[in-house]
Specification:
Residues 4-227 form the UCH catalytic domain. With 313 residues, the chain is an alpha+beta fold. 45% of the residues lie in helices and 13% in strands. It has two domains: 12-259, Peptidase C12, ubiquitin carboxyl-terminal hydrolase (Ubiquitin C-terminal Hydrolase UCH-l3, 3-Layer(aba) Sandwich), CATH 3.40.532; 264-312. Strand 5 and strand 6 (188-192) form a beta hairpin. The longest helix has 29 residues, at 284-312. It is globular, with a radius of gyration of 24 Å.
Length: 313
Amino acid sequence: MSGGWNTIESDAGVFTYLVENLGVKNVQFEEMISLDSDYLRQLSPVYGVIFLFKYPVGQSKPDDGNAVDGNFDFAAAENLFFANQVIQNACATQAILSVLLNRGDIEVGNDLSEFKEFTQQFPSDLRGEALSNSELIRTVHNSFARSSPFIDEGTRAATENDDVYHFIAYTTINGNLYELDGLQPSPIAHGPCTDENFHEKIIPVLQRRIERYPANEIRFNLLAMIKDPRVTAAAIGDVETLEREEQRREAWLWENELRRHNFVGFIHEVAKEVARSKLKDGGFDQWIEEARDKSKKRLADKKGGLADVEMEL
């Protein structure tokens, strides 16, 4: 069972407004277009990184109980916010919360503050249960799911033939770089790290992660959680940056609204109106015949193209 959680996209606009709707202040997401420490430094302050990657169904864990990269830190799990993922499709929001609720320099709002306080003494599996049962967090999460009348991702479990994707988080906590993955037994420590050198420390960790995959695997996505640029721009009077960021926010709002709607009914009504118009002016049969001729021509052209390919081979 998915518990009513739907898949959401790894998108800067989706994540930015998701956390805003949860009550978080002055946080924005930026897509990392390059695994370059200088580029990441330019986005400072960076609170953390959300990493999306293909997760092989049935992937086994190391037999020796050690992490593939870094070290399990079971003691840290008791002193920071770490929740095991116990429900399908919640990993995006869970990764985001893994950064938000472990930072002391982000204003997360009353609701998330109360949730963190309520789950503070829970073991990681019960924190995951509490997260999955949070009506507020689930409702906000699902409000950014792409609407589809054909797919219910909670009706079946993933199989080995499916492409399954997973979100994890990286952030600095108590002077260390941590990987926070709800499918792992504990946080994974990657060594000493501060906010000042996070941009240098995180890049080799990400590179090692990506190198585990075949060279032709390119389906990764990285989003940096940063301070809202509008705050700094307003403080220093940078009108150009402020206007540019406001325009981006407006574009994200529009895109998010489009995600909430499916257009099957609209397309159906348009098709009916076109057919009605053709019937009214007596051109319906001609319209159908022209469409049939075009389909035949496309099929013939396609067959001709395949023949050319066979000759070349």
